[in-house]
Amino acid sequence: MKLSRFVRAFFADLATATGTTIVILFLGLALFGPLIAPYSPTRQNADAIRLPPSTTHVLGTDRLGRDLLSRIIYGARDILLLAGGGTVLAVLLGTFIGVSVTYLGGWLEELVFRLFDGLLALPALLLALLLLGAVGPSRSGVLLVIVVVYTPIVARVVRSVVLSLKTRGFIEAARMRGERLGYILWRELLPLVAPTLAVEAALRFSYAIFLVASLGFLGVGVQPPSPDWGLMVLEARNEFALAPWSLYAPAAAIALLVIGVNLMAEGVRRAIREDVTR
Fold first, then answer.
1. CA pair distance 34, 45, nearest whole angstrom
2. Of residues 94, 73, 75, 72, the one with CA closest to residue 203
3. What pTM did the predictor assign?
4. Can you give the pLDDT at residue 159?
């Protein structure tokens, strides 16, 4: 797949370009948050409790007088690092397991994927709660949860592709040439798995954002006073009648980021499909 052709196909759709712009905007907030945020995200101000949006506080303040815009900006870093980092680790581990174990086959494949089936039988949020109950609520715990929850899904997607490829003629030819196992796995199989993997990674990222926010909302993810978006929704829930803006701001941020990532994922899927059909 030529990069220039992929980029043209990717940005040919307005929705994809819009989603990409949204994601880039949030990445910018995460990278340059300390330079952009007008206030400290944890600074409490007794004279500014539940202030509505204004020129001084663009998104208003919460029940402790903390500036919501600053908390949204700083919270972008947490959610992107946790969801993005966890997704990357899950994709890497799932790809390694999916490619190597499926190619080798036999009892090892049966054992690994039956174990994954057992994990997938549990709803993602329930599995996450069980894991966090064991390791405790923390950033590292949330990261571990994302890896454990999504690695089996990625591995099964990769497995379905490898199963259709490992008996093809070019793999047999590589074996007959005496190529090493590593060469067959990563030079012959992986490039053909990559297009499907790109779409799956984008989808997992959007699900991971929701999972991080859900854990924060349940109070078992990132802990106060960190400006976690899900935690902000939890704290604002009982204040809705008095300060509805404190709920709207983090909820809108979560929705916008997920929509942006999903639009990007759709763009990746469409660009790959158009390249394959040519």
1. 19
2. 94
3. 0.88
4. 93
